[in-house]
Amino acid sequence: MPIYILGRLGASLVEHEEETQAQNKVIMGLLFLLLIYPLSFWLLWALFLYTRTGAVLAAVTVWLFAMYHTKLINGEFFRDASYFETDH
């Protein structure tokens, strides 16, 4: 959620031009994602006591979260979930 808030903040920096607002949202979102994913990995690895197995588990967890988030944003998550709710 903080990324979306920062994206909106970036868009509000230039109120008159829609294209510049969109570019600011993208740039700010990407810059902060470059900070959040490594931070998430580091915090998870710390929870796993800095072991090799912990590093692998932290990396897989961050990767799975990124895949889940991407599917959720693209609408694929709910489309795939509805597949199991229908009768075939």
Overall description:
By secondary structure, the protein is an all-alpha fold. The chain has one domain. Helices cover 84% and strands 0% of the residues. The protein has four helices and no strands.
Layout of secondary structure:
Elements: H1 2-12, H2 18-47, H3 52-74, H4 76-85
List keywords for this structure.
single chain, 88 residues, mainly alpha, 4 helices
Quick structural summary:
The chain has 88 residues and is mainly alpha-helical. It contains four helices and no strands. It has helices spanning 2-12, 18-47, 52-74, 76-85.
- Overall shape: it is flat
Low-confidence stretches: none
Total tally of structural domains: 1
Helix content: over 70%
| Count of helical regions | 4
- Strand pairing plus helix content: what structural class? mainly alpha
The count of β-strands is: 0
Mean pLDDT: 82
The biggest beta sheet is recorded as:
none
Instruction: Tell me the strand percentage band.
Output: under 5%
| Series of H and E elements | HHHH
Instruction: Report the radius of gyration as a whole number of Å.
Output: 17 Å
Distance between the termini: 36 Å
